[in-house]
Amino acid sequence: MILNPILAKEYRSRMRTWRAPGVITLYVLLLGLVGYAYFRLLSSQILNGGYLNPQVGMQIFYVLAIFQLLLVAFVTPSLTAGLISGERERQTLDLLLCTRLSATSIILGKLTAAVSFVLLLIVASVPVYSVVFLFGGVSPRELLMTLLIFVITGLAYATIGLFCSTLLRRTQAATILAYALVFTLVFGTYVLGGIQMAMGSMKARVGPYYGPTMPWFMNFNPLQALMSAMPTTGGFYIPYFPIPVLSSSWGPGRPTTPAWQPYLIFSAITIVALTMASVYFIKPVRSLRPRGVSFPTFGGRRGRGRTSAVGDGSD
């Protein structure tokens, strides 16, 4: 991968202009402004009896993590949805396939370049979370788990965009399909879970950690995985935040398996399957010679000017 010319070309073309530093600056600035605005809203709760309230640190951490997960989920497909379809529209894909590079090298090179930029955005945002440790309530392990979910989500959604770009010929159509799939995974499963609760198919129990049983498809939701990796919520809520917080304690008692574990397995399967599918769909036609057609051969054991049947099973 280090010597992959596709990867080197993508790195040079992506980082050569002002767009990459501009996007990184805007990304970190937007995340910092959200954290600062929420910090100002909670300014009356900062001091509790003359001491810093650790609950405030958890609240700021929740807001930053949820907001960044949404940014990663909806920025990543735009980086990969036009990688292959854009080559088709510029009529350069055929030239790329005629080189000595394999289809796997082309796909992995473009995917690695896009994921590397997402990783750069995530790493650049880490200093913003240093404010959380001023208040306490969040351990470094929970921060690392949150960053791991960001990375896995970015990689999974990058493969979704790349697969749509390989499957469809137009960048606009590939982008629409990629965002439709991402929107379904992020918000569709959440809405379906709420509908299932409203229809009364899940029974709520009374108790400190009792609630409706979490549907199986919520394991595909990155927000649910993120909440299960964060500090234990209990009855915790985020004031002034427009998005309701998913509880990490759904079901009769606390779940024995956190939601982030099946989510990581599902994401790993998605990454491998869609990458292999992208390699398959980008490959050129395997054989341009129809079966039963004879071509003249010159020289060799068959003799000059004789013909040989193609597709008789001998090749």
Description:
By secondary structure, this protein is mainly α. 59% of the residues lie in helices and 3% in strands. It contains 11 helices and 4 strands, in the order ααββαααααααααββ. A two-stranded antiparallel sheet has the order 1-2. Helix 3 (54-80) runs antiparallel to helix 6 and helix 8 runs parallel beside helix 11 (260-282). The protein is globular, with a radius of gyration of 25 Å. The relative contact order is 0.12.
Give the secondary structure arrangement, pairings included.
Elements: H1 5-15, H2 19-41, E1 47-48, E2 51-52, H3 54-80, H4 83-89, H5 93-97, H6 103-124, H7 132-135, H8 140-167, H9 171-198, H10 222-229, H11 260-282, E3 294-296, E4 307-309
Antiparallel strand pairs: 1-2, 3-4
Helix pairs in contact: 1-6, 2-3, 2-6, 3-6, 3-8, 3-9, 3-10, 4-8, 6-8, 6-11, 8-9, 8-10, 8-11
